[in-house]
Write a structure and sequence with these properties.
The protein is mostly helical. The chain contains 11 helices and 3 strands; from the N terminus they run αββαααβααααααα. The chain has a 3-stranded mixed β-sheet.
């Protein structure tokens, strides 16, 4: 039964629905292809430096109230709009119902692409939420009570989508350093990741590396490096 505390809230803390609505187009040119999502400006500019600049400066987007990400995956932009309103990351239900590693890999890939999008739009809170979502997904068993971790192609996508020093890279390295198996690594995973993994393994031997499944997620957040509070503190 729903408690009173769950259904009541302070008016000042309710959603701001008075701001103008912005259209975000993704997945192709504005005419004929892709998808368009609508979001109140107050939510779009809540934590993104990119959108604040685009909508408050002398830019085309400020005049047209339309932002076009033709080269971005529409599913990623949808995920961002959902998060902007709810502070939650939504994944597919069949991920757990089918117990299919390919389904899990698809969800991890989408979360990684969303993290890269968060880099692009300069949204620290979104990136940090995605880190928490990836860790949560790695701990969530499927219908067969089996947990799937981000390995192989997912790691390749992470390193193709991020720069050296990325917290997401560090998370992938720690997953492998603490829970990795021989069949996790193949010939396609090499270069920077291999070097990072070796350093992490050495660090683990010296008790410097940490297990991501038991370490507070803030270790992998960007807010600490930027001297900002965690997004969770603003809820």
């Amino acid at each position: 039964m729903t408690s009173t505390q769950q259904v009541l809230g302070w008016d000042a803390e309710g959603p701001n629905l008075k701001s103008k609505v912005i259209a975000i187009h993704a997945g192709g040119p504005l005419v004929g292809t892709g998808e368009t999502f609508f979001i109140h400006e107050s939510y779009l500019t809540k934590s993104s430096e990119y959108f604040r600049a685009a909508l408050r400066g002398p830019w085309q987007e400020q005049q047209s109230r339309v932002i076009n990400f033709a080269d971005e995956d529409a599913a990623v932009v949808k995920l961002y709009v959902q998060w902007a309103y709810t502070c939650k990351i939504y994944i597919r239900d069949e991920c757990f119902e089918q117990g299919d590693p390919c389904t899990y890999r698809g969800d991890y890939e989408r979360l990684v692409k969303a993290y890269a999008f968060g880099d692009k739009i300069q949204d620290v809170a979104f990136r940090d939420t995605l880190i928490d979502a990836i860790i949560a997904l790695s701990k969530t068993p499927d219908a067969k009570d089996f947990c799937w971790l981000p390995i192989k192609d997912v790691v390749t996508t992470v390193y193709e989508s991020t720069l050296p020093g990325s917290q997401l890279r560090q998370l992938m390295v720690d997953f492998h350093a603490w829970m990795g198996a021989e069949d996790w690594v193949n010939e396609d995973i090499y270069g920077e990741f291999s070097a990072d993994l070796i350093r992490a393994l050495w660090g683990r031997l010296k008790v410097k590396s940490t297990n991501p499944l038991v370490t507070p997620a803030c270790k992998y957040h960007d807010h600490a490096q930027l001297g900002e509070p965690c997004y969770k503190d603003g809820r």
